[in-house]
Design brief:
By secondary structure, this protein is mainly alpha-helical. It has six helices and three strands. It has one domain.
Length: about 160
């Protein structure tokens, strides 16, 4: 079994957006898609971008652009339908039907985070995106970070 297959098996057990455990003040929970995007997106970009850039530089050097693109393509095709379905359930469960319109953007963020987590695994790095993967495993959508990572808390939907 390849590393990517093992990773896909790992993410295959995620209860996407299912809020599988109590947060015990571990996360800053918000309950609005519009709030997540409108109020927290800038903070998310400021936090995520340096991690993406640093990881991408390492990955380009160690595995190359083609393998990075391959991982993104595989992750997107393997989890795309599943996260779309689970997002729809999440919207219904939390009565967020009035906050439609950002589905593609939000789910692209999930695919991005999970793809970078797979790249970290391929590089044997326990980094920022591995942390985000654990948040997804808890059933939450990480949409920002309070404080300076690794201090502070994830802001989750």
């Amino acid at each position: 079994m390849t590393m990517i297959d093992e990773f896909l098996q790992e993410v295959g057990s995620i209860n996407w957006f299912g809020h599988g455990k109590k947060t015990a003040n571990e996360y800053h929970v918000i309950h609005s898609i519009f709030e997540a995007y409108d109020d927290w997106n800038e903070k998310m970009l400021r936090t995520w971008e340096p991690h993406i850039c640093a990881l991408e530089n390492i990955a380009v050097e160690r595995i190359g652009d083609e393998q990075i693109d391959n991982i993104f393509s595989i992750i997107s095709s393997e989890i795309g339908d599943i996260i779309w379905r689970e997002w729809s359930y999440f919207i219904t469960r939390w009565h967020l039907e009035g906050e439609a319109g950002l589905e593609n953007e939000m789910l692209d963020m999930v695919k991005r985070d999970v793809s970078w987590a797979c790249i970290e695994k391929a590089l044997n790095i326990q980094g920022f995106f591995s942390t985000l993967l654990e948040i997804y495993k808890d059933g939450y959508f990480p949409c920002a970070w309070t404080g300076d990572y690794p201090n502070g808390n994830a802001v989750v939907l």
